[in-house]
Hints:
Layout: E1 2-6, H1 10-19, E2 26-31, E3 42-43, H2 46-50, E4 55-60, H3 68-77, E5 81-84, H4 87-104, E6 108-109, H5 120-127, E7 133-139, H6 142-153, H7 158-167, H8 176-179, H9 182-196, E8 198-202, E9 205-206, H10 214-222, E10 226-236, E11 239-249, E12 262-269, E13 273-280, H11 284-299, E14 311-314, E15 321-322, E16 324-329, H12 330-333, E17 338-343, E18 347-352, E19 355-356, H13 357-369, E20 374-380
Parallel strand pairs: 1-2, 1-4, 2-3, 4-5, 5-6, 8-14, 9-11, 11-20
Antiparallel strand pairs: 7-10, 7-12, 10-11, 12-13, 15-19, 16-18, 16-20, 17-18
Helix pairs in contact: 1-11, 3-4, 4-9, 5-9, 6-7
Amino acid sequence: MKTAVLGYGTVGQGVYRMLCSARGLEPGPVLVREGKKKEPFQVTSLEEILADADVKAVVEVMGGVKPAFTYASRVLESGRHFVTANKALVAARGLELSEIARRTGAGFLFSAACGGGVPLLHNISLAVESDSLRSVSGILNGTTNYMLHAMQTRGWDYARALAEAQALGYAEADPTADVSGLDAARKITLACAVAWSRLPDRGIECEGIESFSAGDVADLQSRSLTCRLIAAGKPAGRTVSAYVEPTVFSPGAPECSVADNYNMARYEGANSGPLVFIGQGAGRFPTASAVLRDLSCIVQGQRAMLSADCAAVEADNSREQHPYYVRCAAEAAQALPVKALLANGPTVRLLTEAISVHAMHTLAQKIRKDGGEIFFAGMKEA
Ligand code: NAP
Ligand code: HSE
């Protein structure tokens, strides 16, 4: 299957290289920006790709929603298969693309958009054929995992950890999406859409790692706790609960040993029970390998990951509850259900009783709106 590629950056170069030697696949033209053409296989307009009748599939690895959505629509309208690693695109416009694909009979797969090289969506989409899933969660952002791991084990500061993750090709073009939790939020959006045919395009409570300080690292280490950024989703009535937040783990939890750019995702099937997937969540070849896997699935006849009845919903985190580890001003802490005060003074550290994810995130927003600082992390037992 001759396959064109849109974008020749970190992932695009990996996809092109892998296409050159993959069984059943053959590399087609690669779209680069006007003025950036350096190789004979590169082109500078989508028209040149669509004019090639031998191109049967197109991979999009440019990033962003514009012009990716326009290009994706045109590819699918032409009846060609479309594979993308772009979670921003699928989270924002995936339902429309899915509808076009269904109408034209084209394939539309996006495993690389959630978990990089980890076959999470692929396995969820297989599992839902015969099982019902109770929850999906895990470490879904390689950049922040790399940063948190380096800050907690190598003593790097936040700026150095981010710079190294960028240099290694893990971060988004604008790394704010990684550190704010937005990238992980988009990934859990996709996981919910594949698992429960509900795509939470609003209401996801999202806390990243921007408030995680050297003081937090030291305090957690003194308590043998490890911090990771976790995204979680599960059914909640007619909608889903879906959120992203730092989470602290006790020794022995498998998350503590997830290092560098690795992701660790779990889902629990009503019949399969819990399943755990670990692998590189970011980087050129791990991600390209997921793209190639989707292309192979298309060759074998798979056409979709989103079901025809998948609908946009507002996430509801009001019934999802657990305790939190919190650092904030003593005055602000009065609004929290304190279970244990760990450190006293103008700034306190404490553990809360179980409270809803919605209540905790709403309170943190209010503290920041009033000019205060807060770091909070969900608590998980080993
Ligand atoms: P990247 O290194 O920035 O590469 C994107 C490439 O696309 C750049 O060369 C960019 O050119 C080009 N591009 C952007 N808009 C274009 C346009 N309109 N026409 C032609 N070329 C265009 O990004 P990446 O890391 O490969 O990521 C690509 C996508 O994969 C993103 O959606 C990302 O979220 C996703 N992804 C990345 C990873 C990873 O580990 N990096 C993992 C999973 C998923 P300029 O540089 O000139 O802008
Ligand atoms: N920036 C993303 C990450 C790329 O670090 O996980 C993989 O989706």
